[in-house]
Design a protein that fits this description.
This protein is mainly alpha-helical and 312 residues long. The protein is 72% helix and 4% strand. Strands 1-3-2 form a three-stranded mixed beta sheet, with helices on both faces.
Protein backbone atom coordinates (compact mmCIF):
# COMPACT_ATOMS: atom_id res chain seq x y z
CA UNK A 1 0.00 0.00 0.00
CA UNK A 2 2.88 2.32 0.79
CA UNK A 3 4.33 1.77 -2.68
CA UNK A 4 0.97 2.53 -4.29
CA UNK A 5 0.61 5.79 -2.36
CA UNK A 6 4.13 6.85 -3.29
CA UNK A 7 3.60 6.08 -6.98
CA UNK A 8 0.27 7.91 -6.98
CA UNK A 9 1.92 10.93 -5.36
CA UNK A 10 4.71 10.95 -7.95
CA UNK A 11 2.24 10.75 -10.86
CA UNK A 12 0.06 13.50 -9.37
CA UNK A 13 2.99 15.84 -8.74
CA UNK A 14 4.39 15.24 -12.22
CA UNK A 15 1.05 15.98 -13.87
CA UNK A 16 0.41 19.00 -11.63
CA UNK A 17 3.72 20.87 -11.85
CA UNK A 18 6.26 20.22 -14.66
CA UNK A 19 3.93 18.93 -17.40
CA UNK A 20 1.54 21.94 -17.47
CA UNK A 21 4.45 24.38 -17.44
CA UNK A 22 5.97 22.62 -20.44
CA UNK A 23 2.60 22.50 -22.19
CA UNK A 24 2.10 26.26 -21.86
CA UNK A 25 5.41 26.82 -23.65
CA UNK A 26 4.57 24.46 -26.51
CA UNK A 27 3.59 25.80 -29.92
CA UNK A 28 1.36 22.99 -31.16
CA UNK A 29 -1.73 23.83 -28.97
CA UNK A 30 -2.30 26.94 -31.08
CA UNK A 31 -2.41 24.75 -34.18
CA UNK A 32 -5.10 22.44 -32.83
CA UNK A 33 -6.88 23.90 -29.78
CA UNK A 34 -9.41 21.06 -29.65
CA UNK A 35 -6.66 18.49 -29.07
CA UNK A 36 -5.00 20.86 -26.58
CA UNK A 37 -8.25 21.11 -24.62
CA UNK A 38 -8.43 17.33 -24.55
CA UNK A 39 -4.85 17.08 -23.26
CA UNK A 40 -5.54 19.59 -20.47
CA UNK A 41 -8.67 17.71 -19.43
CA UNK A 42 -6.74 14.42 -19.34
CA UNK A 43 -4.05 16.00 -17.12
CA UNK A 44 -6.68 17.30 -14.70
CA UNK A 45 -8.42 13.92 -14.70
CA UNK A 46 -5.11 12.22 -13.91
CA UNK A 47 -4.46 14.41 -10.87
CA UNK A 48 -8.02 14.04 -9.59
CA UNK A 49 -7.95 10.24 -10.05
CA UNK A 50 -4.61 10.03 -8.24
CA UNK A 51 -6.09 11.94 -5.32
CA UNK A 52 -9.30 9.89 -5.26
CA UNK A 53 -7.57 6.51 -5.42
CA UNK A 54 -5.01 7.56 -2.81
CA UNK A 55 -7.86 8.76 -0.59
CA UNK A 56 -9.64 5.42 -0.98
CA UNK A 57 -6.50 3.43 -0.10
CA UNK A 58 -5.66 5.70 2.82
CA UNK A 59 -9.19 5.57 4.20
CA UNK A 60 -9.16 1.77 3.91
CA UNK A 61 -5.95 1.72 5.94
CA UNK A 62 -7.13 4.08 8.67
CA UNK A 63 -10.79 3.02 9.00
CA UNK A 64 -11.75 -0.63 9.32
CA UNK A 65 -15.32 0.08 8.16
CA UNK A 66 -14.11 1.61 4.89
CA UNK A 67 -11.70 -1.29 4.40
CA UNK A 68 -14.50 -3.80 4.84
CA UNK A 69 -16.72 -2.00 2.35
CA UNK A 70 -14.03 -1.64 -0.32
CA UNK A 71 -12.59 -5.15 -0.08
CA UNK A 72 -15.85 -6.99 0.71
CA UNK A 73 -16.23 -8.56 -2.77
CA UNK A 74 -12.51 -9.40 -3.06
CA UNK A 75 -10.77 -12.56 -1.82
CA UNK A 76 -8.73 -12.36 1.38
CA UNK A 77 -5.50 -12.64 -0.57
CA UNK A 78 -6.28 -9.33 -2.33
CA UNK A 79 -6.74 -7.48 0.96
CA UNK A 80 -3.59 -9.09 2.34
CA UNK A 81 -1.40 -7.97 -0.56
CA UNK A 82 -2.23 -4.31 0.15
CA UNK A 83 -0.99 -4.67 3.76
CA UNK A 84 -3.76 -2.62 5.33
CA UNK A 85 -3.41 -4.01 8.84
CA UNK A 86 -1.30 -1.13 10.18
CA UNK A 87 -1.66 2.55 9.39
CA UNK A 88 1.49 4.66 9.49
CA UNK A 89 1.22 8.26 10.77
CA UNK A 90 2.10 9.73 7.37
CA UNK A 91 -0.63 7.65 5.69
CA UNK A 92 -3.19 8.94 8.19
CA UNK A 93 -2.00 12.52 7.65
CA UNK A 94 -2.15 12.08 3.87
CA UNK A 95 -5.67 10.66 4.11
CA UNK A 96 -6.81 13.60 6.21
CA UNK A 97 -5.22 16.05 3.78
CA UNK A 98 -6.84 14.37 0.77
CA UNK A 99 -10.22 14.27 2.50
CA UNK A 100 -10.02 18.00 3.19
CA UNK A 101 -8.98 18.58 -0.43
CA UNK A 102 -11.91 16.54 -1.73
CA UNK A 103 -14.36 18.45 0.47
CA UNK A 104 -12.87 21.79 -0.60
CA UNK A 105 -13.01 20.82 -4.30
CA UNK A 106 -16.66 19.82 -3.96
CA UNK A 107 -17.43 23.10 -2.22
CA UNK A 108 -15.67 25.14 -4.94
CA UNK A 109 -17.51 23.29 -7.71
CA UNK A 110 -20.86 23.79 -5.98
CA UNK A 111 -20.08 27.46 -5.42
CA UNK A 112 -19.15 27.99 -9.07
CA UNK A 113 -22.33 26.28 -10.29
CA UNK A 114 -24.49 28.35 -7.95
CA UNK A 115 -22.73 31.56 -9.03
CA UNK A 116 -23.08 30.62 -12.70
CA UNK A 117 -26.80 30.00 -12.26
CA UNK A 118 -27.17 33.34 -10.50
CA UNK A 119 -25.29 35.14 -13.29
CA UNK A 120 -27.46 33.49 -15.93
CA UNK A 121 -30.57 34.59 -14.07
CA UNK A 122 -29.30 38.16 -13.88
CA UNK A 123 -28.39 38.14 -17.57
CA UNK A 124 -31.82 36.92 -18.58
CA UNK A 125 -33.49 39.47 -16.31
CA UNK A 126 -31.37 42.18 -17.93
CA UNK A 127 -32.49 40.98 -21.35
CA UNK A 128 -36.13 41.21 -20.29
CA UNK A 129 -35.54 44.80 -19.21
CA UNK A 130 -33.93 45.68 -22.55
CA UNK A 131 -36.67 43.84 -24.46
CA UNK A 132 -39.82 44.05 -22.29
CA UNK A 133 -42.07 42.67 -25.03
CA UNK A 134 -40.44 39.24 -24.79
CA UNK A 135 -42.39 36.37 -23.25
CA UNK A 136 -41.91 35.91 -19.52
CA UNK A 137 -40.42 32.44 -20.04
CA UNK A 138 -37.37 33.63 -21.93
CA UNK A 139 -35.52 30.28 -22.01
CA UNK A 140 -38.45 28.63 -23.79
CA UNK A 141 -38.95 31.43 -26.30
CA UNK A 142 -39.14 30.16 -29.84
CA UNK A 143 -36.14 30.52 -32.07
CA UNK A 144 -32.47 30.21 -31.15
CA UNK A 145 -31.68 33.86 -31.95
CA UNK A 146 -32.67 36.91 -29.95
CA UNK A 147 -32.18 40.39 -31.47
CA UNK A 148 -31.73 43.37 -29.16
CA UNK A 149 -31.88 47.05 -30.09
CA UNK A 150 -28.39 48.45 -29.46
CA UNK A 151 -26.15 50.74 -31.48
CA UNK A 152 -23.00 48.82 -30.50
CA UNK A 153 -22.29 45.61 -32.40
CA UNK A 154 -22.26 42.59 -30.11
CA UNK A 155 -23.15 38.91 -30.06
CA UNK A 156 -23.00 36.32 -27.31
CA UNK A 157 -24.68 33.19 -26.07
CA UNK A 158 -26.42 32.40 -22.80
CA UNK A 159 -25.93 28.84 -21.50
CA UNK A 160 -29.07 27.03 -20.53
CA UNK A 161 -31.65 24.62 -21.86
CA UNK A 162 -31.78 25.51 -24.65
CA UNK A 163 -28.85 27.92 -25.04
CA UNK A 164 -29.86 31.37 -26.25
CA UNK A 165 -27.97 33.26 -28.96
CA UNK A 166 -28.16 37.05 -28.65
CA UNK A 167 -27.18 39.58 -31.31
CA UNK A 168 -27.64 43.35 -31.35
CA UNK A 169 -29.02 45.46 -34.17
CA UNK A 170 -25.65 47.22 -34.32
CA UNK A 171 -24.07 43.92 -35.34
CA UNK A 172 -26.79 43.33 -37.93
CA UNK A 173 -26.16 46.77 -39.46
CA UNK A 174 -22.36 46.69 -39.39
CA UNK A 175 -21.62 43.08 -40.34
CA UNK A 176 -22.13 41.61 -43.76
CA UNK A 177 -24.17 38.45 -44.18
CA UNK A 178 -21.04 36.24 -44.31
CA UNK A 179 -19.49 37.99 -41.30
CA UNK A 180 -22.69 37.57 -39.31
CA UNK A 181 -22.74 33.90 -40.27
CA UNK A 182 -19.17 33.57 -38.95
CA UNK A 183 -20.08 35.23 -35.65
CA UNK A 184 -23.14 33.05 -35.13
CA UNK A 185 -21.18 29.92 -36.07
CA UNK A 186 -18.57 30.87 -33.47
CA UNK A 187 -21.20 31.26 -30.76
CA UNK A 188 -23.06 28.09 -31.78
CA UNK A 189 -19.83 26.12 -31.46
CA UNK A 190 -19.54 27.26 -27.83
CA UNK A 191 -23.05 25.99 -27.20
CA UNK A 192 -22.57 22.73 -29.12
CA UNK A 193 -19.31 21.86 -27.34
CA UNK A 194 -20.70 22.83 -23.90
CA UNK A 195 -17.71 25.08 -23.27
CA UNK A 196 -19.51 26.63 -20.30
CA UNK A 197 -19.10 23.44 -18.25
CA UNK A 198 -15.40 23.34 -19.04
CA UNK A 199 -15.02 26.99 -18.04
CA UNK A 200 -16.89 26.39 -14.78
CA UNK A 201 -14.66 23.43 -13.91
CA UNK A 202 -11.43 25.27 -14.66
CA UNK A 203 -12.54 28.38 -12.76
CA UNK A 204 -13.58 26.37 -9.69
CA UNK A 205 -10.28 24.47 -9.55
CA UNK A 206 -8.19 27.61 -10.07
CA UNK A 207 -10.16 29.47 -7.40
CA UNK A 208 -9.89 26.65 -4.90
CA UNK A 209 -6.23 25.82 -5.55
CA UNK A 210 -4.56 28.96 -6.93
CA UNK A 211 -1.03 27.81 -6.06
CA UNK A 212 -1.20 24.56 -8.03
CA UNK A 213 0.29 25.27 -11.50
CA UNK A 214 -1.93 22.75 -13.29
CA UNK A 215 -5.19 24.33 -12.18
CA UNK A 216 -3.99 27.90 -12.74
CA UNK A 217 -2.75 27.12 -16.26
CA UNK A 218 -5.83 25.00 -16.96
CA UNK A 219 -8.08 27.98 -16.25
CA UNK A 220 -6.05 30.42 -18.35
CA UNK A 221 -5.59 28.05 -21.27
CA UNK A 222 -9.22 26.92 -21.27
CA UNK A 223 -10.50 30.49 -21.62
CA UNK A 224 -8.05 30.98 -24.49
CA UNK A 225 -8.42 27.65 -26.27
CA UNK A 226 -12.22 27.59 -26.36
CA UNK A 227 -12.14 30.87 -28.28
CA UNK A 228 -9.52 29.54 -30.70
CA UNK A 229 -11.53 26.36 -31.23
CA UNK A 230 -14.70 28.34 -31.97
CA UNK A 231 -12.71 30.60 -34.34
CA UNK A 232 -11.52 27.52 -36.22
CA UNK A 233 -15.07 26.25 -36.58
CA UNK A 234 -16.22 29.62 -37.95
CA UNK A 235 -13.23 29.93 -40.30
CA UNK A 236 -13.80 26.45 -41.74
CA UNK A 237 -17.38 27.42 -42.57
CA UNK A 238 -16.96 31.06 -43.60
CA UNK A 239 -13.25 31.51 -44.29
CA UNK A 240 -10.35 32.88 -42.27
CA UNK A 241 -10.51 36.42 -43.66
CA UNK A 242 -14.27 36.74 -43.16
CA UNK A 243 -14.00 35.53 -39.57
CA UNK A 244 -11.11 37.92 -38.84
CA UNK A 245 -12.99 40.89 -40.31
CA UNK A 246 -16.11 39.94 -38.33
CA UNK A 247 -14.04 39.80 -35.15
CA UNK A 248 -12.56 43.23 -35.86
CA UNK A 249 -15.90 44.83 -36.69
CA UNK A 250 -17.53 43.28 -33.63
CA UNK A 251 -14.86 44.47 -31.19
CA UNK A 252 -13.47 47.61 -32.81
CA UNK A 253 -15.20 49.89 -30.31
CA UNK A 254 -13.56 47.90 -27.49
CA UNK A 255 -10.03 48.48 -28.82
CA UNK A 256 -9.43 45.05 -30.30
CA UNK A 257 -6.09 46.09 -31.78
CA UNK A 258 -4.82 47.85 -28.65
CA UNK A 259 -1.99 46.55 -26.47
CA UNK A 260 -4.08 46.39 -23.31
CA UNK A 261 -3.85 43.04 -21.56
CA UNK A 262 -7.64 42.62 -21.57
CA UNK A 263 -7.69 42.93 -25.36
CA UNK A 264 -4.51 40.99 -26.06
CA UNK A 265 -6.37 37.76 -26.74
CA UNK A 266 -8.54 39.48 -29.35
CA UNK A 267 -5.45 40.73 -31.15
CA UNK A 268 -3.89 37.26 -31.05
CA UNK A 269 -7.06 35.76 -32.46
CA UNK A 270 -7.12 38.25 -35.34
CA UNK A 271 -3.44 37.63 -36.15
CA UNK A 272 -4.02 33.88 -36.01
CA UNK A 273 -6.95 34.10 -38.41
CA UNK A 274 -5.07 36.33 -40.84
CA UNK A 275 -2.06 33.98 -40.76
CA UNK A 276 -3.48 30.59 -39.76
CA UNK A 277 -0.84 28.18 -38.40
CA UNK A 278 -0.50 24.75 -40.04
CA UNK A 279 -2.73 22.17 -38.40
CA UNK A 280 -1.41 19.00 -36.84
CA UNK A 281 -1.13 16.02 -39.14
CA UNK A 282 -3.63 13.22 -38.74
CA UNK A 283 -1.03 10.84 -37.32
CA UNK A 284 0.29 13.41 -34.87
CA UNK A 285 -3.21 14.34 -33.80
CA UNK A 286 -4.27 10.71 -33.35
CA UNK A 287 -1.09 9.90 -31.42
CA UNK A 288 -1.45 12.92 -29.13
CA UNK A 289 -5.11 12.15 -28.45
CA UNK A 290 -4.43 8.49 -27.73
CA UNK A 291 -1.50 9.15 -25.40
CA UNK A 292 -3.47 11.81 -23.52
CA UNK A 293 -6.41 9.42 -23.13
CA UNK A 294 -4.14 6.72 -21.68
CA UNK A 295 -2.54 9.00 -19.07
CA UNK A 296 -5.60 9.02 -16.72
CA UNK A 297 -5.40 5.21 -16.65
CA UNK A 298 -2.09 5.37 -14.76
CA UNK A 299 -3.71 5.92 -11.33
CA UNK A 300 -6.06 3.00 -11.92
CA UNK A 301 -3.22 0.72 -13.06
CA UNK A 302 -1.14 1.64 -10.01
CA UNK A 303 -4.09 1.08 -7.67
CA UNK A 304 -5.24 -2.26 -9.06
CA UNK A 305 -1.82 -3.69 -9.98
CA UNK A 306 -1.34 -5.54 -6.63
CA UNK A 307 -4.80 -7.10 -6.87
CA UNK A 308 -4.23 -8.17 -10.48
CA UNK A 309 -0.96 -9.89 -9.56
CA UNK A 310 -2.77 -11.95 -6.94
CA UNK A 311 -5.77 -12.81 -9.11
CA UNK A 312 -3.60 -13.80 -12.03
Amino acid sequence: MTVCLLLLSVVALTAAVPVPRALTRAVWPERDPVVALWVWQCLVATVLLCCLTALALGAATVFHTVRAQIFAPAPRAVAAVYDLSTASPWAAALTLLLACGAAWTTAMLARELVEARRRRGQARAHLRERAPDLPAALPSARGPLLVLEDEYPDAWWLPGHPPQLVVTTGALHRLTAHQLDAVLTHERDHARAHHDWLLHLSTALATGFPRIPLFAHFCDQTHRLVELAADDTASRRCGHLTTALALIELNQHRGVLSCASSHRLLGERVDRLLEPPPRLGRRHRALTTTVAALVPLLPLVITFAPALTVLS
